[in-house]
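hey
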């Protein structure tokens, strides 16, 4: 299950090229002079973002991936088990694909040595950068 999600998250970072009639051999194009490319003539671009979200949410639904799983994953991977209740609130308020994408970006930044603070702080910074609410009132 985890590998499928990782593959899909990695797939999201790929950029699809909608270029038509290009002579640049490095691009995936339609009507390219490179005859080895198997393509279909089309004037429309691929809706990659929508397609990814629907695939991911389908996987989450199929595997029964609920907010508890997402909260556990966030708390464990961020090394912040004591804040698990907070991650549960995040998981209940936001789509899991957004949270897991922010987690993947955080872990990648950590591996590259970019993070100067703690992983949880960097993770919340990503959410804030995406204009997502990170403070919730107790009810």
């Amino acid at each position: 299950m985890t590998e499928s999600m990782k593959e899909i998250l990695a797939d999201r970072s790929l950029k699809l090229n909608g270029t038509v009639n290009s002579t640049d051999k490095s691009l995936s194009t339609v009507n390219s002079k490179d005859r080895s490319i198997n393509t279909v003539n089309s004037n429309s671009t691929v809706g990659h973002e929508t397609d990814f979200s629907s695939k991911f949410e389908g996987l989450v639904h199929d595997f029964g991936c609920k907010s508890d799983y997402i909260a556990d994953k966030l708390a464990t991977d961020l090394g912040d088990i004591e804040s698990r209740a907070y991650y549960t609130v995040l998981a209940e308020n936001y789509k899991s694909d957004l949270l897991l994408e922010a987690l993947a970006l955080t872990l990648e930044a950590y591996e590259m040595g970019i993070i100067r603070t703690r992983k949880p702080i960097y993770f919340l910074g990503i959410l804030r950068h995406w204009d997502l609410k990170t403070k919730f009132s107790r009810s």
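Residues 13-32, 34-39 have pLDDT under 50 and may be disordered. The helical segments are 2-12, 48-62, 67-78, 84-93, 96-112, 119-129.
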